[in-house]
Please model this.
Amino acid sequence: MNASLPVGINPSPKTPYRPTQQAHHNSPRMTLATFAVLIRQAFLQSTVFRANYLIGLLSDLLFVYLSIQVWTVLYSNQILESGPTTIQLITYVTLARIVAPVDMEFVQNMQQRVLSGEIAGELIKPIPLSWFLLAQEVGRYISRLLLRVLPIALLVFFTISLSVPDSPIYILLFVVSIILSFIIMFSINYITALAAFWITQLFSINVLKGQTVRLLSGILVPLWFFPAAALPVIELLPFASIAFVPIQLFLEEISIVKACYSLALQLAWGIIIWQIGRWMWSRAVRQLSINGG
Amino acid sequence: MHALQLYYKSMLLQMKRSRQYRFNFYMGIFGVIILYGTQFIALRITLAYFGEVVSWDMYELAFLYGLWMLTYGVLITVFAGVRDFAGFIHRGEFDVFLIRPHGILWQVMCGRLELTSWSHIGVSTGIIAWASMHMDFTWSLNKVVEFTGIIVGGALIQGGLLLLWAALSFWIIQTGNFVNLGWTINANYMTYPLTVYDTGIRYLFTLFPMAFITYYPAATFLGRTDSWGYQLGMYSPLVGLAFFLLMYGFWRFAARFYQSAG
Amino acid sequence: MNAIEVTDLWKVYEIKQHRKGLMGGLHDLIRPHIIEKPAVRGINFSIQQGETVGYIGPNGSGKSTTIKMLTGILTPTRGQVIVRGVEPNRQRQANAAHIGAVFGQRTQLWWDLAIRESFDLFRHIYRIPAQRFKDNVDRMYNLLQLHSFDSTPVRQLSLGQRMRAEIACAFFHDPAIVYLDEPTIGLDVIAKEQIRAFLRDINRELNTTIILTTHDMEDIEQVCNRLIMIDDGHIIFDGGMQQFMDTYGTERMLSIELESQVSDFYVEGAKVVANEGKQVRIMFNKADISASRLIGQLTERYSVKDCQLQEPKIEHLIRGVYESRGVTA
Model:
């Protein structure tokens, strides 16, 4: 006797089961209110005074100090006519070290959760994982800006000097650029984290990500000093937008026209990489539901 | 002797085990290459633009860089357990060390084998060989002995730094920022000659002897008599030993504290 | 010389309280708020070589703290622990050479290796001479039946197989004392029986002192001849199993089935607990009246069809003791 099969189950054993279109009907929604709450929570969590935070703050301070020394000594022998002034270089170096959030916490956590199988729980949660993580990272980033970037920048401003933008247009462009660079960096980290579904040790991928970003975004070496031939190519890549472009805007070093062009490029990259992230997530979910984690 | 047999056997077994994780092994090597590769590219770009750094040229800087990598590689061959020490504490595995009839540090060292250390050693030897070909000295017996001393001293300092971190992980749960601090200082900043920095920084890294891993010994070895403080280079093995013993004492102290605090 | 001698042993933890908010965080840095939390309050006991001791207490009673001090993991705040003439935390390695430990929740085996290879590593860790090692391994293989899975990697073993291997490891170096923490947790009934039988056998054969901490009272009943109960840092019972039963286990339950229902069921010297239909349950204290006297009385007065005597379970008794002290598990 044949019991009737549930709707959607393919009775033929040869073709694989494909979820019907109906499965996407109830895709989870994240409301603005939820988003705001998550941001706030992450922000508050990261403001707890811990030894780790203090060490992080002091080490950033040290790095900035050391970077300033290295680059001013190097540059003092060869001031470029068309290049930055020393003050601008100092500003660049200071901001490059601390503004760009290259490494994000959730990447490590993701690896653990995939290994332990805990990640399967994400499939039944009403909030999509990417938005959840984004909200958390936004909270942490705001905390970082307030509790790390601001104190250090102020310190450098009052002890040495900083080139601060005065035109409101540039300030606005800078803020927009920072937001876009954050989104790009988040998406890159998201893709890196998702690699945990296929690779057991994220360490190397994370190093690859971090080092590539740091090199090509001008954090290790300001892009002014790169070989002139390579610059046009590098500027097209998404990495330049992570540190170089925003700081250029802060220094008011690019024309408004070029700025808009760069921002548009940033936006394009942001969308592309975010989409790649979404695609990878769907593959990961597939992987999870077929293999069971 | 049983202790050595134990070490030998546990290394063998870990090698056997990592054969099962071959992919991870290659990924690990890949990660190491990327890490050093990008630093090196950054250095080349900088030098392509500026020519030299406080009158140290490309080859001398490469030598400096290679020294750091080699001392780390040599150290991590035996000290990978210390590098991963925080994990032992946080997973509660440290207690098991306490109920075994062996010294704790020895057990920690037996606990982890890092096969990718050979990639550190290989790459750095290559860099040093390449650099030394373009420089003005020969590898006489004296030089080889001197070089060995430098490496041993540097490895001891690196070991001391790892012990310091391991000790701190008894108290601090999230040691991420501290690891980052040590690594970035060494990878990004100690690869420039110390003379790039102002006096305050110079004294800082002399007293907290990171400069003795690369700068001072390189200055002496390469005959840079014009370099600030180059005479200190010959003391690097001594400094290494002293620092290591000091950090080991601190680590023992931290372990005793753990035993009384629980 | 006693195997274990504990005198006026204290352990007081110092816990840092975290204050809330940003200002609280700063305050924490300048002057941290530390409160004292005593886990073990001046306990005393001594254990002879060859005893099998069940050491029990609810979570937070100071049970694990005591064991940690006995094994040398933790330093006492005050008082003394002497194990075979040696203070465990002062002479850590000397003590470690003569003790074994089994943790139910954590493995000491190497995850990817076959147990045979793990055993070999243990030989070097404990510096066991080759012949003695071989003899001990053979004995363990026989007593615990490890032959069938000795080349399987640990991660592929069932929990029962893994625990047998773990327990085997603890005995290779002929330790004088073995501490077992939840060794039967998560195991099926047969596996539990095997392990309990093994512990009894090994204790009989080698006179090894066995200290067992567990939440499974069957373990205690089957393996231990002595029971030490700890609660809130104090020892509330220390004595033989029989002594425990005599002190706390004097109540019995008698279930009888009557020919027909009796609404005003009454009996002297005992308490009627339930009276439903034809089933009556009676609770009595065996110090007050013996079971046979009671049954005799009942059959005289009522027509009893069937009766059943229930001995109290140690588990319930122990729980009862703790509950009467206001502890909920």
Observations:
- Chain A has ten helices and no strands.
- The longest helix of chain A spans residues 256-291.
- The CA atoms of residues 24 and 282 of chain A lie 12 Å apart.
- Chain A touches chain C through three residues (CB under 8 Å).
